[in-house]
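Lecture notes, unit on protein representations.

Consider one protein chain, 81 amino acids long.
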Amino acid sequence: MSQLLCDGALQCACRDGAIVGDDLAKQTAPYVDKILTGATPAELPVEQPTKFELVINLKTARELGLTISREFLLIADDVVE
């Protein structure tokens, strides 16, 4: 998520503790293995997020000429200056 914001994304809303890159591959591999060894995908458990994280990039907002309301900033989990 932080890489998205470093690359200039205005905001990022994702599940808390979201995993990307190599970590995502490590979490996905056991599912792929089960499917390749005969498990039915419908029988595999689905992970549902219980909390989402909202991060706002104020630098990008300023560059776009946007004003982010104080209320929106207050509900954000993190604000990147």
